[in-house]
Fold this protein.
Amino acid sequence: MNPQEREKLILIGRKFRIPGAFQDGHRIKIGHINETFGATYVDGKEVSRVVHQTINTQVFREPIPLMNNVVRVTEHLRRKLAAEGASDLRRRSLEVIPTHDGLPYHIDEDGRYWRTFVFVEGVRSYDAVQTPLQAAQAGHAFGRFQALLSDLPARELATTIPDFHHTPKRFERLLKAIEIDEFNRAKSASKEIAFAQSMAPVVSALVDAEARGDVPLRVTHNDTKFNNVLLDEESGEAMCVVDLDTVMPGLVLYDFGDMVRTTTSRTAEDEQYLDRVELEMPMFEALARGYIEATRDFVTPAERRLMVLSGKLITFTIGIRFLTDYLQGDQYFRIHREHHNLDRCRKQFKLIQSIQTKEDEMQRLVERL
Ligand code: GN1
Ligand code: MG
């Protein structure tokens, strides 16, 4: 962090109810959207570690309802966990630290929104899943998250991004970006565009199931990528689910689908060696087992039947979002190299192709569990 950033972070930190004085801060490179910093405060012998984060208001247009969601959800989780007698509460749910005025956010002089969380100690996240044991932990953790929130009425939460996983609308936006081709990039993505177009017949499967009333709206996480679950550094146990900006009414299938996207192949989201990208059945089985074990009490047979399809469709949805962003000049997802969003898209599409060769087997497995 440069001295200016440090000064800024010190000023921000003073707005929140953190005991002690700022000692040290650093940037944490996570996510494609918000900016995140870790900071340490010292008060005599007491050391507090926190996370300061800006909210990207280009992406999250209404940060106040968003933060109200986050507070509502984290308090609900904590209450439920405490009632169950869970140990280590501070590591099992995020905790928002309010400002001195009691608000869950601070607006700085540039109009930027900041929020602060307790830092979860002794955990780590991984960009790529490594073992079926980890996959089971992730499936179980996101399933538990849904289960603990299943008694919170979905309509009480704000929708932080409308139509977030609405595949047909995402598909429409892609078609428009192809047509406009503002950055003259469509040619370099012609194979990916053709593949995306070939998926047109299935894009509405999940929204149709919702419209028919087959699958209900519930409180869901909506960004269940593997690196959004924190695993205990030593035991590997999933401790805490993070990144709560998109917790809102949704289908449990959005969550399961994004887990399939990120937790069934030992490759990163932007893997360039596509030969390595494959849905690994032992990972999928562990993931599905962990998830089903945690959600058995409320997930319906109709939801269960669509789990495999959701894996394909949510992978597709995120894949076309990367492709659209590539065509639109990388305005949404932060990139770290040229063609990064195209690489990300290619990885997603390769995974879909792998899923297509194993769909029947996956379906049989899920229905058996
Ligand atoms: C974004 O916040 P972050 O970087 O974890 C995106 C998700 C995508 C994900 C892909 C609000 O998540 O939808 O699946 O990138 N979040 C938003 O890595 O668009
Ligand atoms: Mg996110």
Remarks:
- The domain at 132-368 is CATH 3.90.1200.10 (Aminoglycoside 3'-phosphotransferase; Chain: A, domain 2).
- The pocket of magnesium ion (ligand 2) is lined by residues 31, 223, 243, 245-246 (CB under 6 Å).
